[in-house]
């Protein structure tokens, strides 16, 4: 009888331990899938522009909401190849990792570090692209912003999982903050909104007739 109770308690504890893994898996699968679709649309649009220079894209809404304007800059191919090609590969990999976590697979420590490394690169690259779009290019790409939207929670969820699993033994105060990946994602969204309001302030005033 006691052995059965111990087994049930151990099983319940295992389920509780896996819960954060499954949440992270769901975030990676959803975020990776949505970002992959966005990258695919951007790649199709890029090929269309190469065949039809000067053509208007469906997301070319006005002078400061325009995928075409963003695609024509060097930042759209930062490493010499279109950014969307990197996204197609990278987000497909993250979606696969998400599927593994959802299935309950136990990933080795090095794999957790590799996943965090990949998401850190993606999140850092997103910062560069967002800052460039808002303050340098002065144009926003809706599909690009969808990728931004997905990448932030993917990064923060993976970071939190790395701490929860004991892979990274961060200092207690830092770990306490980084575990709140939802709050961190929302805070990042707020910063992006503020940056867009600041970067396009004159355009917003013009749109409402105050410019």
Automatic annotation (TrEMBL):
Assigned GO CC terms = membrane
State the compartments where it is located.
Membrane
Entry keyword set: Disulfide bond, Membrane, Oxidoreductase, Quinone, Redox-active center, Transmembrane, Transmembrane helix
Q: Where is each Vitamin K epoxide reductase domain found?
A: 21-162
Instruction: Name one matching Pfam family.
Output: VKOR
Record's family?
Belongs to the VKOR family.
Identify its membrane topology class. Answer: Multi-pass membrane protein
Q: Does the keyword GTP-binding apply?
A: no
Q: Where are the transmembrane segments?
A: 26-44, 81-102, 114-137, 143-160, 181-201
| Primary subcellular site in the record, as a coarse category | membrane
One example GO MF annotation: quinone binding
Identify the Gene3D superfamilies for this entry: VKOR domain (1.20.1440.130)
Q: Whose protein is this, by species? A: Brachybacterium phenoliresistens
Protein's name according to its UniProt entry: Vitamin K epoxide reductase domain-containing protein
